[in-house]
Amino acid sequence: MQILLNSLAILLRIMSNSLSNVFQKKLAGENENPVNVNFINYLILSIISIPLICFVNYNQLNNDFWLYALLGGITGAICNCFMVLALEKGELSVLGPINSYKAIVGLIFGIIILHEYPNLYGIIGIGLIIAGSYFIFDTASPKVFLRKDIQYRIYALIFSALEAVFIKKVIILSSVITSFIASSLLGALFSSLIVRFFSSQKLHIPNNKHCILYLLTSICFGLMTFTTAYVFKYMNVGYALSLFQLSIIINVVLGYKLFNEKNLLKKLFGSLIILIGSATILIFGH
Length: 286
Description:
The protein is mostly helical. It has twelve helices and no strands. It has one domain (2-284). It starts with a helix and ends with a helix. The model has no long low-confidence stretch (mean pLDDT 86).
């Protein structure tokens, strides 16, 4: 039963992540400031999370919990801000696969902080994920990493990997629901500080179309946040981050269908290699 629930959570996480990216890209592409988009997403999510506070066991909330919750809130807010900045400037079908590097970053910090170590098959799987990502780029030149959208995406994945480790610690010290509430409320707090100091556009009431997009983004982002916490409760962080890379197929197809992005077959081939790496981790990595 637990395997079925884990599989369902992974599937929901993959779908909600891709759809959240689509809505964020649409908002950023229609003159909504990415920094403001980040804050409003967290603000709506924090409002949604308020009724769940009654399920929190406050006796579990010790000093270590608050430390890791604060670190998770800071890294999460910064991560999503860089993600929206990247989506504003880059292609969804390129930026999605770059996320495959998160498994490596997460693995490194997982070893340091959580003492989670991969076996040989886990390392091979992660290596395949990295190798496949090279087919996603329009060029094999290292100069691709000088592009702003790529740089923002790499910053996002680094902070996302750090956030993943902190979330895992929060879950260990509390529960999935408590982790979700902490991520939502603290993410709203720190993203509001980012707006205050870094936004070039004042917050304003969105038009009807953008209100719908913001609501859809927040629902998908909230579902992604909750399912991420659920999967982390039952799975090694490095392996979970690797399995989340399955969303790149959806990102490549959505980028082609919705934003007229090119090189579909080449990107799908690279995605296939990444999927083989994910399957290696899923079947042999534990």
